[in-house]
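Extended Data, record RDD family protein
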Amino acid sequence: MSDDDSDRVVPDRDTTDVVGARIAAQVVDTVALFVQLVAVTVLLGALVRPSTETGVEGLAFLALFTLPLYGGLLEGFWNGQTLGKRLLGIRVVDRRGRDPGVGAAFLRNVPAVVLFSWVTTAVALAAIATGDRRQRVFDGVAGTHVVDATGGRGGARR
């Protein structure tokens, strides 16, 4: 986290009005997560050299547990942004509008383990669309918000 507040975007009703951008960013990030899943599975396969199809499936299952690292590390170290968020001009901030830090970024990304479930995605979208601060459940747990990275649409930029 930076001590510089020049890029701080305080989460409010205006700055969190990024539901469409969040959906588009999620599509981009889902592709990146799929690439990560395949790459980790292939890497594990090269290291372990499973001899059966069940062994490969087991490695793919283990690779699922690396998925929160994508959002956790990128959002924690890259101005609160993943590839999708950066492309769409949104970012994750804490309650004060600062970068979330690795711990909060990782916590909000725990559901990535079950990301490929349509139920998880539907619940997340419902929470974003209906809440005042447009937070997913794990955004609330982690104390994070997704905001317009520019603080645009009249949002409070400090």
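Summary. The two ends are 16 Å apart (CA to CA).
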